[in-house]
């Protein structure tokens, strides 16, 4: 009987996995997706610092020649959470793809990597260099985009750091907040992709949560057993909510703001 049940389980498993069909394999360094209810695209980063945009049927739509700054040689998709790296309506109204990318340069004098955050469009046009002076800000890559429902303004927040050497690592933080052109399309795209974002992760003392602008006024933290360990109220006008997690044991936790939730690691 056990053998019969085992054989039946194998048949069910094979039938289930048999429904998976490999449609396409991208051979570039990394590929991300841009998907809305009306369209799907794939964007690949190539080894020679270009971006390739593919249609949903995997045909090449366009190759983007990235305007690399002088002395910068490495291209990467920016940020950690990958939200809004690819967009269409957030920074312009011409329905062209926009990309937030990071480029790197090793500075021998400071013994460190300088990082620029660049905004470009699908024509390879540089729309904004968020770090025009690497001598004062050597690291600019992490960002968040959100809709400030109180002021009805869309905003971009760029987290910068400056430091002298990688050996004597003593970062000096700087956070820049930019107002974006507010339009119906922009707000819809931002609200459709709203997710929770926090930094630093992992953390050992303070967790800074970016207000998702979903009208919630409380952040709650749960451990892996579902026990509520932090319950903090905040003003809906606050952009950043800081919670002290130093007393929490090391491990993985879930934090919630309204109906949105995500996880972080406490060191």
Automatic annotation (TrEMBL):
UniProt entry tagged with the keyword Signal: yes
Keyword Oxidoreductase: no
Highest taxon listed in the record's lineage: Bacteria
Pfam families xref list: Por_Secre_tail
Signal peptide region: 1-18
Domain Secretion system C-terminal sorting per the UniProt entry, residue ranges: 199-265
InterPro entries documented for this protein: Secre_tail
Annotated coiled-coil segments of the chain: none
Keywords associated with the record: Signal
UniProt name for this protein: Por secretion system C-terminal sorting domain-containing protein
Taxonomic source organism: Chryseobacterium polytrichastri
């Amino acid at each position: 009987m056990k053998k019969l049940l085992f054989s039946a389980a194998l048949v069910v498993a094979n039938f289930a996995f048999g429904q998976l069909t490999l449609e396409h394999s991208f051979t570039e360094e990394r590929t991300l997706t841009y998907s809305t209810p009306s369209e799907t695209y794939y964007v690949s980063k190539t080894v020679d610092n270009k971006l390739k945009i593919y249609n949903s049927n995997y045909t090449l739509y366009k190759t983007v020649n990235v305007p690399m700054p002088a002395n910068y040689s490495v291209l990467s998709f920016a940020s950690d959470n990958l939200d809004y790296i690819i967009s269409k309506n957030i920074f312009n109204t011409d329905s062209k793809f926009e990309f937030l990318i990071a480029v790197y340069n090793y500075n021998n004098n400071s013994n460190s990597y300088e990082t620029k955050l660049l905004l470009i469009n699908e024509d390879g046009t540089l729309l904004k260099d968020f770090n025009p002076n690497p001598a004062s800000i050597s690291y600019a890559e992490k960002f968040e985009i959100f809709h400030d429902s109180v002021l009805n303004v869309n905003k971009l927040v760029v987290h910068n750091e400056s430091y002298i050497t990688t050996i004597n690592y003593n970062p000096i933080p700087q956070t820049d907040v930019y107002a974006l052109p507010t339009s119906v399309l922009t707000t819809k795209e931002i609200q459709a992709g709203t997710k929770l974002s926090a930094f630093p992760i992992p953390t050992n003392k303070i967790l800074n949560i970016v207000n998702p602008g979903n009208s919630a006024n409380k952040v709650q933290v749960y451990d892996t057993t579902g026990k509520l360990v932090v319950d903090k109220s905040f003003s809906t006008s606050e952009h950043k909510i800081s919670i002290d997690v130093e007393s929490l044991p090391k491990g993985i936790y879930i934090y919630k703001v309204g109906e949105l939730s995500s996880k972080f690691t406490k060191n």
